[in-house]
Amino acid sequence: METQAELENNDNNNNNSSSSLIGGGVRQQWPTIDGPLGLSENDSLWYARYFFIFGFLMLPLLWAVNCYLFWPVLIHSRSFPNLRPYVVRSAIAFAVFSAILGSWAVTFVVGGERLFGHTWDELVMYNVADKYGLTGWI
């Protein structure tokens, strides 16, 4: 049977196995925002990698989820060096995606019919029911 001191020493060793040093010698314990309820470092690496990769498969919201879930890794520059590249790349990719989507939306809304000319009627969706005669039955 183990003594209380040995149990505490084992608990400290288990906690330190999932921690990482950040600047000044302070230990960052958990890579996710959930703290001790979150993922281990190995599981976090798997999720961060696949969220980053699947973000390129027309699921850019996964990049935002990756940044949110691994926020402690994103804000502490020296924590979890294996995990950090995937989270930083997800943040950059989501920022680029947001800029492209935002510029498209502003162009579409501000330019409107003046910018697109006669093709504007083909681009907008609010006149689909009138175009196909679907409003007469109401």
Structure write-up:
The protein has helices at residues 4-17, 41-55, 61-69, 71-75, 84-116, 120-123, 128-131; strands at 20-22, 26-28. It has 138 residues and is mainly alpha-helical. A two-stranded antiparallel ribbon has the order 1-2. Helix 2 runs antiparallel to helix 3 (61-69), helix 2 (41-55) packs parallel to helix 5 and helix 3 packs antiparallel against helix 5 (84-116). It starts with a helix and ends in a 7-residue tail after the last helix. Residues 10-23 have low confidence and may be disordered.
Strand order of the largest sheet: 1-2
Q: Could you give the order of the helices and strands?
A: HEEHHHHHH
Strand content: under 5%
Secondary structure category: mainly alpha
Global outline: elongated
Keywords: Membrane, Notch signaling pathway, Transmembrane, Transmembrane helix
Membrane topology: Multi-pass membrane protein
Subcellular location: Membrane
Organism: Heracleum sosnowskyi
How do the strands and helices of this protein lay out in sequence?
Layout: H1 4-17, E1 20-22, E2 26-28, H2 41-55, H3 61-69, H4 71-75, H5 84-116, H6 120-123, H7 128-131
Antiparallel strand pairs: 1-2
Helix pairs in contact: 2-3, 2-5, 3-5
List keywords for this structure.
single chain; 138 residues; mainly alpha; two-stranded antiparallel sheet; 7 helices
How would you concisely characterize the structure shown here?
Belongs to the PEN-2 family. The protein is mainly alpha-helical.
